[in-house]
Amino acid sequence: MSLLSDLDALDAQMAADALDTPEAAEAFRVRYLGRKAGALTDLFKRLPELPAEDRRAVGARLNALREQAEARVAEAEAALNAAEKAAQPGLDLSLPGRRPVPGAGSRHVLTQTLDEILRVFGRLGFAVAEGPELETDFFNFTALGFPPDHPARDMQDTFFVAEDKSLLLRTHTSPVQIRTMIADGVPLRIVAPGRVYRNEDITYKSYNLFHQVEGLYVDEGVTFADLKAVLRLFAEAMFGSDVKMRFRPSFFPFTEPSAEVDIWSDALGGRWLEILGCGMVDPVLFAHTGVDAERYTGYAFGMGVERIAMLRHGIEDIRLLYENDVRLLEQFG
Ligand code: DAH
User: Fold this and answer.
1) pLDDT single digits (tens) 59-74
2) Which is nearest to 156 in space by CA: 111, 113, 212, 109?
3) Which ligand 1 atom is at minimum distance from the Cα of 299?
C-alpha cells in the first residue's frame, strides 16, 4: 500500500536529517510539519484514501511520527540556544578580579597638598575664606596698593576680560584679603585657597593657571615675629622638622616690610625654591577697608600650592600636575 511505504520512507528520511544549525532546524520543521506543504501534514490529508479498518493504525503511526518530529525540533532549538549563550562572554565568577588602577578615582596630588595646607592652618586657628576668580581691578590691584599705570601691574601678566581692563581673572588670591576685611571686619584670621591665572608662557616652572593659599591675620599687636613663627610651624608641618628655610627681603605693594620664603630642596637638584611672599599688611589696605590702622596691625602671606607639591614629592615639571598622566596619578593613589 503506497501510503504505508511512503510512511516508512519518511521515517527513514527524518532519522537521517541533521538539525545542527538554526536554518536546518527550521527547514526540517517546514519540510515535515509545515501547515501547507509539510510531508506529515500531507499524509494526514491522505488518511481518508485508506480503507476504514486501516485508518486507525496508520493514524496512530502518523501521530507518533509527528510527535517525534516536534520533539526533535524543540530539542534542536534548545540545544542551539544553549550553544549560542555559551558562546557569548558571560559572567565567569571564577576569573581573577580586575585590579583597580592606583590613582584612578583618588584625590589628585594637588588636592592632597591643598587639603594638607588647610589642615595645618586649621590647627593654627585659621578659618577658610573664598573669593571669585573673575575679579575687578579694584580688588585685584587698586585696593592692594597698586597705583594706576604702575609697572607692578605688569609684573603680574594679567588676563583681562573687559576691553577697559576693569574685569580680569585674578592674578593672585590677595583680593580675598580686601573682600574679607570689608565683609567680616577685624580681628580676623583666615586662609583663602583658590585658582589664579597669569598670561605667561608655559614652561617646566610656570603655567597659565595655578593655585595659591592666601593668609591674613589682623588683630591688636600682631608683629613680624608672629609671622615668622607661624610660617616656621607651617614649613615644619609640611616638610619635616629638619626643613631648611630662609626669609629674603622683597617688595609687594600691599605689605611693608615684605619678604619671600625659600625652601631648600635636595630632591630638586640642591637649590632654594621660593614658596611664598609675605609681610606686614600695608596700612593702605586698612584705609580701603575701613579698619582702624591706629589700633590694628596684621600680617599676610600668599603661597604657591604647585611649588609646595613639587617640593614635597620631587616633581620637576609643573606641567605634570595638569596632564593627568596615569603614570603620575598612580603614584599618589
Ligand atoms: N600675591 C602675591 C603674588 O601672587 C603673593 C603675596 C605676597 C601674598 C605677599 C601676600 C603677601 O599676602 O603678603 O605674588
Assistant:
1) 888 899 999 999 999 9
2) 212
3) 13
C-alpha cell at 332: 599618589
The domain of 233 spans 109-332
Indicate the residue type of 224.
Answer: F
pLDDT for position 330: 84
Position 82 scores a pLDDT of 87
**Cα-Cα-Cα-Cα dihedral sign, residues 269, 272, 274, 275:** positive
Shared domain for 273 and 130, answered yes or no, is yes
* Cα(246)–Cα(313) distance, integer angstroms: 20
Selection from 52, 41, 58 nearest residue 3 by Cα? 58
- In DSSP terms, 135 is beta-bridged to 168
Q: Would you say the CB of residue 279 lies under 6 angstroms from ligand 1?
A: yes
Which atom in ligand 1 lies closest to the alpha carbon of residue 172? 4
Does 104 reside within a domain? no
For residue 316, which phi and psi values (nearest 5 degrees)? -90, -20
Looking at residue 160, what DSSP letter applies? B
- Grid cell for residue 274: 621660593
The pTM for the full model equals: 0.72
Mark whether 120 and 234 lie in a shared domain: yes
Spatial separation of the C-alpha atoms in residues 144 and 302, rounded to whole Å: 13
255-265 β-sheet, strand order: 127-128, 188-197, 209-219, 297-304, 271-281, 255-265, 245-252
Residues 6+ apart with CB under 8 A from 22: 77, 80
Closest ligand 1 atom, residue 302 Cα: 8
Q: Determine the distance separating the centroid of ligand 1 and the alpha carbon of 286, expressed in angstroms.
A: 16
150: domain CATH number? 3.30.930.10
Longest dimension (CA), the chain: 131
